[in-house]
Amino acid sequence: MIADNKRYRYGGGDKVAKLFRSFIKKPALYFILVTDAETIYKRKQEVTFSELENQVEKYKSLVDNKRYFEIDVSKKPAKIVSNVTAILMKKMYERR
């Protein structure tokens, strides 16, 4: 809702959405799948290019490398899997 409020037909502000988010059970990790706006726009033109750029930046702004991790999906699938696996293994090791 924060990055793409039109998709969810949400008309409130970001502060209300963030407040609402505090009532939802949270996973231990989030993987934010991103690539450049040009690549996404070539595949789908559901929103304007400038809106798409804004959404990509909002998703990237969530990344803190503690709980929210950016995964660059412009890489080959094996590299993506390797990145996700490395993050999962590191987090599992930290839980010990």
Care to describe what's here?
By secondary structure, this protein is mostly helical. It has a domain of 67 residues. It contains four helices and two strands. Strands 1-2 form a two-stranded parallel sheet. α2 crosses α3. The longest helix is centred in the last third of the chain and has 19 residues. 3% of the residues are buried. The model has no long low-confidence stretch (mean pLDDT 87).
Task: From the structure above, extract its key features.
96 residues; mainly alpha; flat
Q: How helical, in percent, are the residues?
A: 40-55%
Biggest sheet details: 2 strands, parallel
**Unreliable parts:** none
DSSP summary: helix tally: 4
The chain-level mean pLDDT equals 87
Radius of gyration: 15 Å
String of helices and strands? HEHHEH
Strand order of the largest sheet: 1-2
* Classification by helices and strands: mainly alpha
Number of E-type strands: 2
**Terminal-residue CA separation:** 34 Å
- Shape assignment: flat
Short précis:
By secondary structure, the protein is mostly helical.
Topology readout:
Blueprint lengths: L13 H8 L8 E5 L2 H7 L5 H13 L6 E5 L4 H19 L1
Parallel strand pairs: 1-2
